# Entry
Amino acid sequence: MFTSLQADKLAVLGGTIPLDGRVSWVPQGATGFQPSNAYLLTEGTSHLLVDSGLAVHSKEIMDDLAGLIGEGGGVSIFFTRSEMDCVSNLEPIAGRFDIERLFTGGVINPFDAFDDLSRLALRGRRHQIDAQRTEEGDSMARAAEIAIADGRVLEVEAPLLRLLPTFWGWDKETGTLFTSDTFTHGVMDRPDGQRVIDSTADDATTVEQVAGHLYAKYEWIPRSTCEPLREWLQDKFDALDPEIIAPSRGCVLKGRDVVRRHLGFMLDALTPQFA
# Structure
């Protein structure tokens, strides 16, 4: 069942996965349940899906999409990464809904996995979000935007903290920063628990927990000079002042006090005593 983050504007879809030793992107010994997230941004009759979740949650995501946009309805999709926790449900979505536009970066075309007829039919709907380079050598234009509807855009940029080509999105309308595979440390005690950490949640997150999840994905951090990462994160959050952090995995962080607290955890995890 989807969770509304802002009525008629933003919802999070997806299921949870048990942390039972079989998940490679969490620290050893991690327990509980981790949400796998896709996000639907809505403006009037226009919809943009940010990532598509894991294939194991395909039914939940398809049914939630049908409830939110109507069976066979039109939707655009933005992938923050080309990894399977983001792109796995592209084909079932294409089979049940009308993909109006697909925004991706890097060199991989997700439609290449489709049969020839489907690939040809959808080829013209893919948009390369990192096709330009700035004079500073960035892999994408600094002001890349995805138009959700008239007057509402998702600003896109490549974060400094990444492995493969990765993109963050900023939705000023809802104050939401989509952080892909960063800020993934929020887990639940049970599969039907609260997937949003807000002011009502009993938040027992520690910097050690944040550091463990961060290093499980970015194993190079403890051997790196992290001050540029700390400065980039601090500057980004100071400039945007987000109300919601929306990662592709892990609990959603909602409320500026919650966001600032978890930013503090992340900055601490990037200090020499941890890194």
In short: The radius of gyration is 18 Å. The chain is about 25% helix and 25% strand. The first strand starts at residue 3 and ends at 6.
